[in-house]
Amino acid sequence: MKDARIYGRFSSKPQERGDSKRQQIEGARDYANKNGFTVVAEPYFDEAVSGKAGANLEKEFGRLLKEARTGETILVQFMDRLGRQNPFILGKLVYDTTQRGISIIAWAENKEITPENINELGTQITTFTGAAVGNQENLRKMKRLRDTTDQAYKLAEQGKQSGTLVKYLPQCFTWNEAKKAIELDPVTTATIERIFAMFNDGIGKTTICQTLNKENVPTLYHNGQQTIGTKKPWIETSIKKILYNESYAGVLNVKGHKITCIPKVVSRDAFDKAQLLLKRYSKRAGKTNGRVNNLFNTLAVCKHCGGTVNVSVSPAKKPGDKVCYSYRCKNARLHMCEHHKMLHAFTVEYLFFVYYFMGSPEDSFSSSTGEIAAKIEVAQSKLNKLTAAISNLYDMAESGDTEAKNRIARRKIEQLEVEQEITRLKGQLVEQANFPAAAATVKQSLSDGIVIDARELPAKLANNEIRAKLRASLPSIFEKVVFDTTARTVEGILKEGVKLNTFFKNTTRFDVPRPPHGR
Questions:
Q1: Among candidates 223, 280, 452, which has minimal Cα distance to 359?
Q2: Are strands 73-76 and 2-9 parallel, antiparallel or unpaired?
Q3: How far apart are CA 141 and CA 248, in angstroms?
Q4: CA atoms within 13 A on the CB side of 42
Q5: pTM to 2 decimals?
Q6: What dotted CATH number matches 163-281?
Q7: By C-alpha distance, which of 483, 470, 476 is closest to 500?
Q8: What does the domain layout of the chain look like in residue ranges?
Q9: pLDDT tens digits along 5-33
Q10: What dihedral angle (degrees, nearest 10) is formed by the CA atoms of 441, 447, 450, 451?
Q11: Predicted confidence (pLDDT) per residue in 280-338, tens digit
Q12: Which long-range contacts (CB under 8 A, 24 or more apart) does 429-432 make?
């Protein structure tokens, strides 16, 4: 009896649904039984690992070569399962393996390469030609895939859909072969719409996960190890991937192409709002106790040092006492700012919403989007010209014009700068459009009617769900909120073009009195 180790591989994820793995392993075992081999270890198998560049050498095949011993045999279905690299590269790998006293048998091809026959002309010819054929087949396959993909991009530029695009899209996009169109799965789409709606309402990613897991909503991503029963749970990373994926807004970004002929899951406004919130929340650090402590997160700054103003939490000293929340300069806590006083959080928040939001909601805002839209139009025109210029330069470069290559590099830098400017202007446009909705959210959250009742504010501000909505809405209205803890004042700096109807029109600053307990 001779010792043998089984190796198998397939190159693409769709093959997981097929029978390739079973056929390779059971076929090898059957060959071993019939030919007097003893399989000394569990089969080594590389799933969804391409053989074109030898990636399997870093995975199971590499482990097999490391663990194989002199006198053993590697059983493999076909030689190209070992790899489809250039025949010179694969030939050297085979030669080096036999020099360690290890044989290779491709049982489906009835091909045997041993330390004894590796120097025979017949073995060398069949090994080299087999590797060359496998390599050429792989190159032809890759060329067909590239041609198919390039054709899909060209059709997409003409507004035509193709099944090739689906492999770059999330799970809810499917290809209807009969209609020749990309369609949306209604169940998955409803989940995605709900995630965007919850996040844009100020609900955090953790809370969204908890809600979906509690309701046993199926996840959209199949990777990951944790499970709830037999189902994989929602995690914050999955929610973040969904919120950042522009495909859901009808724009597929793939290999430098922007494809806009795909159906939308959510509106452009909903997607852009989510991006703004993600950018704001990315500045947050650490975890809280579940309560939305700082309503002015990303907005609150110290007047004296310009540092962040955070919420300091003082735990109850004895049973029956309440936890005390105070706004304080972060730099002062780190002894980097002399203004270390604290302002009682409830007092600040109560006065802030009384001061700014107890006026009439009519004509609360005045903003002009026409100027921004004009700037976007000018920038887009410049971008179109740069794109056309780069296309023309490519023709010159292909003709051997070296200067054209340098000019392409410069034009691409300009192109990137213009694209960034357009993105910035579009974000500013979205901010302008969000002003009325943000104010309406604040009003609706804090009042049961049209005007906020100061007597209702304490109960409203104690509601964590309302606090989340307020925190999400305020950055669309205020540029920043300036705290002077020493003078005990707070000033809200409105965004450009925003005007709020308040009872106090002569100043934007209000004083914060000391609370009854003296803090």
A1: 452
A2: parallel
A3: 31
A4: 4
A5: 0.47
A6: 3.90.1750.20
A7: 476
A8: 2-138, 163-281, 300-363+448-511, 370-446
A9: 999 998 876 666 668 899 999 999 999 99
A10: -110
A11: 777 655 445 578 889 998 899 999 988 899 998 888 777 777 888 999 998 887 677 88
A12: 429/369, 429/372, 429/373, 429/376, 430/269, 430/272, 430/273, 430/276, 431/276, 431/476, 431/495, 432/367, 432/368, 432/369, 432/372, 432/497
User: Among 267, 203, 226, which Cα is nearest to 465's?
Assistant: 203
CATH match of 2-138 with 3.40.50.1390? yes
Kindly list the distances between the CA atom of residue 238 and the CA atoms of 177, 289, 340, in Å, as whole numbers in the listed order.
29, 22, 40
Cβ–Cβ under 8 Å, residues 82 and 90: yes
Token readout for 126 is 């069949």
Q: Distances from the Cα of 39 to the Cαs of 11, 44, 107, 281, in angstroms?
A: 24, 11, 14, 55
CA separation for the pair 87, 130 (Å, rounded): 8
Percent helix / strand / coil, the chain, rounded to 5: 50, 15, 35
- Assigned token pair, 61: 């095949």
- Name 38's bridge partners: 3
- The string of DSSP codes covering 67-101 is H--TT-EEEESSGGGT--S-HHHHHHHHHHHHHTT
Residue type, 154: K
Q: Residue 158 is encoded by which pair of tokens?
A: 């003409």
- The two tokens of residue 469 are 């909505």
